[in-house]
Specification:
The complex is a heterodimer. Chain A is an alpha/beta fold. In chain A, 37% of the residues lie in helices and 23% in strands. Chain A has 2 domains: 247 residues, Rossmann fold (3-Layer(aba) Sandwich), CATH 3.40.50; 140 residues, Roll (CBS-domain), CATH 3.10.580.10. In chain A, the strands form 5 sheets. Chain A has a 6-stranded mixed beta sheet with strand order 6-7-8-3-9-10, sandwiched between helices. In chain A, helix 5 packs across helix 7. By secondary structure, chain B is mainly α. Chain B has a single domain, classed as MetI-like (MetI-like fold, Orthogonal Bundle), CATH 1.10.3720.10. The two termini of chain B are 14 Å apart. Classes of the chains: A alpha/beta, B mainly alpha. At the A-B interface, helix 2 and helix 4 of A face helix 6, helix 7 and helix 10 of B.
């Protein structure tokens, strides 16, 4: 747990970098500090491990006032990762990871065990990489070692200053995903500084948006998007904040878990009856329906294809096989992209065994979004089961 | 590999000259006779001794001083210190030696011979050492120092475990320049009666025995080449492996 209480920082030249900042980060959460450059986010972070002395106020780490520790002891118990990674080029990967454990006086065996464990955790083979030097690693690998190093002595709290800053967007995305997966296991309390709003929305359990040394809004990512405190927040988050919110939504939160389906083994007659029943219930003419076989997703059927078929045929004969499916964890921005590029315009959500979990439509996404913005049910059409429709 | 070839060729040439000239020694021991091997050997030892003592002291002063003025809390001292050492080097080496003699006399010390020359060599050799130690330490990426601090290293640990290992090749390169320069400058020590390989150079010139001048010159030059290569070896031996990989 990290807590800042009325913290003020005035630099010797009179600059008020941080003005009366109070912030509480509960155990196991990632708090992202974000804001335009010069807003005081990095200064605030560096005051927590006393790299920058506070002018007034109190900072507590795990309930203890940081001023009661000597700075070195304090820092050895708070993980620290920086944008430039700062791996020591003359040390091997192993020596780099072992820096803090060594400062804390761990035995050689303990240190090696921990180094191997951490390399495994960040997805790098210990036998291959322990004795390499940083200059022999790619940028992404260096960032991974940077993360491993800040976890070296297993500190409960971490400070991360744009830890995925200096790499290409694809690798960054990957490292962010990996780090969130690691965080699920290790549950550290993290102060994470970034200037990238997309990264903030993705990584943060809470986001502290700062401007000119002041905390403007401190809230969860969906809250920040849906209820910006003022115009500054609205501008900072961007005009496309609705699109950003899509990233935060997972398939299983938006999908209809009980969509109408036909079975691949249904006869054409049964299938037609199912279409008609749906039409009556919804008051709309349904064009496509999901095809399953038992639990498993098989594809789609177009009702026009049922017309004029011999009576002894089955749905399987006219099935439209679709490769486009999404897992329950897929974020809505990715799902939308898939929906947009898919002829049917809807997306089946399936698990790894290809079992059908639900159905995702434009309307279902729209309904969830509208609700989070206005707090009200979206206007017409509210029926998220309606596939591509033709008016009756 | 190419610099090793240059080294071998140059050294071979100088030693060849030395061997060839020295082979003219005759039993007659006339005035025109070149020096015998034993004499060259003694003068070389004298020369080495002068340079080694001066360098040892210059390193002992220059390396810590260069490191010190690179630290943030002493950074303000760097312009005057580098300036002072710079003056020491921009004055011709002969002048530094010439100035030392009267200073020793003023301090009522023995103004001729060995020590005034050694002190002159120390002053002359300080500049490259201080400058390189300073440059090596201050060129360490600030992100590394920040990382070290943030992980809880003390300033001493940062200096020893981060800065010096990274700066070591630059520091040793300064020592190499300084020593090679001083092997040359020490030949002027003879003007203050300090002996060394300057002696045959000077006496050969004074008596038009050019074979003797050639012997002194070739021996001093060979010594400089050897010293340069030796310290170059130490330099690459001390450079951490991770940094060698980065350079290649």
């Amino acid at each position: 747990m990290i807590e800042l209480e009325n913290v003020i920082k005035v630099f010797p030249d009179g600059t008020e970098a941080v003005k009366d900042l109070s912030l509480k980060v509960p155990r196991g959460e990632i708090c992202v500090l974000i804001g335009p450059s010069g807003c005081g986010k990095t200064t605030s972070m560096k005051m927590i491990n006393r790299l920058i002395p506070i002018t007034s106020g109190k900072i507590y780490v795990n309930g203890q006032d940081i001023q009661t520790f000597n700075p070195q002891d304090l820092r050895r118990n708070i993980g620290y990762a920086i944008q430039q990674v700062g791996l020591f080029p003359h040390m091997t990967v192993r020596e780099n990871i072992e820096v803090v454990p060594k400062l804390l006086g761990w035995s050689k065996q303990e240190r090696l065990k921990r180094a191997r464990e951490l390399l495994d955790m960040v997805g790098m083979d210990p036998d291959t990489y322990l004795d390499r030097h940083p200059s022999e690693l790619s940028g992404g690998q260096q960032q991974r070692i940077g993360v491993a190093r800040c976890l070296g002595a297993d500190p409960p709290n971490l400070l991360m200053d744009e830890p995925f800053g200096a790499i290409d967007p694809i690798t960054r995305e990957k490292l962010q995903d990996e780090f969130l997966r690691i965080q699920d296991e290790i549950q550290k309390t993290i102060i994470f500084v970034t200037h990238d709003i997309d990264e903030a929305l993705k990584m943060g359990d809470r986001i502290a948006l700062m401007s000119e040394g002041e905390l403007i809004q401190y809230s969860t990512p969906p809250e920040l998007l849906a209820n910006p405190a003022n115009d500054f927040v609205r501008d900072f988050v961007g005009a496309d904040r609705a699109l950003k919110e899509l990233r935060l939504l997972r398939g299983e939160e938006v999908m209809n878990p009980t969509p109408p389906t036909v079975d691949a083994n249904d006869s054409f007659q049964v299938a037609r009856e199912k279409f008609e029943r749906e039409d009556q219930q919804t008051g709309r003419l349904r064009r496509y329906m999901l095809v399953v076989e038992g639990d498993h997703f098989r594809g789609w059927v177009d009702r026009h294809d049922l017309d004029g078929q011999p009576e002894d045929g089955h749905v399987r004969d006219v099935i439209i096989k679709s490769a486009a499916t999404a897992g329950p964890d897929m974020s809505m921005n990715q799902a939308m992209a898939t929906v947009l590029s898919n002829a049917i315009g809807n997306l089946a959500i399936t698990d790894e065994q290809n079992r059908l979990l639900g159905l995702l439509t434009f309307n279902s996404i729209r309904r969830v979004m509208a609700q989070s913005y206005t707090g009200e049910e979206a206007a017409e059409p509210t029926d998220d089961d309606t596939l591509e429709t033709e008016e009756l | 590999m190419r610099r090793y070839i240059a080294f071998v060729v140059l050294l071979g040439l100088l030693l060849g000259v030395l061997v060839w000239v020295t082979s003219f020694v005759t039993e007659a021991q006339g005035l025109m006779n070149p020096l015998a091997w034993e004499e060259i050997y003694d003068l070389t030892i004298e020369h080495i001794q002068m340079v080694v003592v001066a360098e040892a002291i210059a390193i002992a002063i220059g390396v810590p001083l260069g490191i010190l003025i690179a630290l943030p809390q002493f950074r303000a001292l760097s312009p005057p210190v580098l300036g002072f050492a710079g003056v020491g080097q921009s004055v011709p080496s002969l002048a530094v030696i010439a100035i030392m003699s009267p200073i020793f006399a003023l301090l009522s010390l023995n103004s001729t011979g060995y020590w005034p020359v050694v002190v002159a060599l120390i002053i002359y050799g300080l500049m490259p050492i201080i400058r390189n130690a300073f440059a090596g330490m201050s060129n360490v990426d600030p992100a590394l120092i920040e990382a070290g601090r943030g992980m809880g290293m003390t300033q001493g640990q940062i200096i020893r475990q981060v800065q010096i290992p990274i700066a070591i090749s630059v520091i040793v390169a300064g020592i190499r320049t300084s020593t090679t320069l001083n092997v040359g400058a020490a030949t002027l020590g003879v003007l203050n009666g300090a002996g060394g390989l300057g002696e045959p150079i000077l006496s050969g010139m004074a008596t038009s025995t050019y074979l003797v001048t050639l012997q002194g010159g070739a021996a001093a030059a060979a010594l400089a080449v050897i010293v340069d290569r030796l310290i170059g070896g130490v330099e690459s031996w001390l450079t951490p492996k991770g940094l060698l990989v980065a350079q290649s």
